[in-house]
Design goal:
Elements lengths: L5 H15 L12 H4 L7 E6 L4 E5 L5 E2 L4 H13 L1 H7 L13 H10 L11 H8 L7 H16 L7 H8 L3 H12 L7 H12 L2 E2 L1 H12 L14 H14 L5 H8 L3 E3 L4 E6 L3 E6 L10 H14 L8
Antiparallel strand pairs: 1-2, 1-7, 3-4, 5-6, 6-7
Helix pairs in contact: 1-14, 3-4, 3-7, 3-12, 6-9, 6-10, 7-10, 7-11, 9-10
Bound molecules: glutamine.
The site of glutamine has 11 residues, from loops.
């Protein structure tokens, strides 16, 4: 594989930074008090290559809550622990086409098939909560340590829970509690609902910055081995499966539009982070808190699209 030269990458991210710097479209997530007060002006971009080079511009070192981007690393951990068949049958891997927090992700499948098919996929809340309920560990704390450790292997250094975010979300996560109980009623929750929502809420509440996201993505680009620490977080088959689910559902109900426009597996979070992966080559991480209607960072999407086009890395394009 031919990786883009360093000056080309640095120039592309600087152009993306300048080009969208003054975009003010979108709104911070308002349903989580901590996220509502994030500074919408902050904007950072990072690229990490599969051979371990790091590029950044803007506030790429500014820490923010990972939110839904965490779903891909918990999925990776569960795939590693339980294998692909378990995720396929107990969670599912099809697009729901629904908003990230939709209860219908649980309901519609059950109506349609009259039985108890899995809740959709691990990258919307229902499936992510089901996925979190599959994490091994005797106590809530050991399960949480396991999730955080795996994410840290992807990032290349230990990550930390942001207690303010965690508290803020625990006070406002009634909707996710409802999803968990509904999953339980259909036999698709594999641990205690209260503990599982707590675990899921913790997973949303660790801090990352744009460089972390790009490094975590670069680990997937590099077949599951962190290109900076050379530690294998997951094996290559697991890494490829995570990328497949990202392509299917990484941007919730606008995943199709995203893939159509950008041509890369991606994952967003309502904290304003977004990561996009070019298998075998690199990953792009962006932070900017204002979101579109679906909950995806507005400038994050613009920046990734511009960088992907500039570097010519659409995975569907013949080169
Ligand atoms: N913690 C958020 C929630 O569960 C994460 C959602 C997201 O980033 N889309 O509502």
């Amino acid at each position: 594989v031919l990786l883009p030269p360093s000056p080309t990458i640095q120039k592309a991210i600087e152009q993306a930074y300048e080009k969208f710097r003054h975009v003010t479209d979108g709104k911070n997530a308002s349903y989580i008090p901590y996220l509502a007060k994030a500074d919408p002006a902050l904007y950072g971009i990072a690229v990490v290559t599969a051979d371990g080079r790091v590029f950044k511009v803007g506030q790429a070192d500014h820490a923010f809550p990972v939110e839904s981007v965490a779903k891909i690393f918990t999925l990776a951990a569960v795939l590693r622990e339980h294998g692909a068949e378990t995720v396929l049958h107990k969670v599912g891997v099809n697009a729901t086409g629904l908003p990230f927090n939709s209860v219908l992700a649980v309901e519609l499948n059950n109506d349609k098939l009259g039985g108890s098919p899995p809740p959709g996929n691990p990258l919307v809340n229902a499936g992510a909560i089901a996925t979190a309920s599959l994490v091994d560990g005797k106590t809530l704390d050991t399960r949480w340590k396991s999730i955080l450790n795996t994410a840290g292997e992807f990032a290349g250094h230990p990550l930390r829970l942001n207690n303010d975010v965690y508290r803020s979300e625990m006070e406002s996560n009634q909707h996710n509690q409802a999803i968990a109980v509904l999953l339980q009623s259909y036999g698709h929750l594999y641990a205690d609902p209260t503990e599982t929502v707590d675990l899921y809420t913790r997973e949303c509440s660790y801090d990352v910055d744009a460089v972390d996201l790009a490094t975590m993505g670069a680990t997937l680009a590099n077949g599951g081995t962190n290109p900076r620490t050379h530690h294998a977080a997951v094996d290559a088959a697991t890494s490829a499966r995570v990328l497949a689910v990202m392509a299917t559902a990484g941007l919730y109900n606008t995943s199709g539009e995203w893939l159509f426009k950008v041509g890369l597996p991606g994952k967003s979070g309502v904290g304003g982070g977004i990561v996009a992966v070019v298998p075998g080559k690199l990953a792009i991480g962006v932070y900017s808190s204002p979101l579109d209607e679906a909950g995806n960072s507005v400038r994050g999407q613009l920046a990734v699209q511009f960088i992907a086009e500039t570097l010519g890395v659409n995975i569907f394009a013949a080169d």
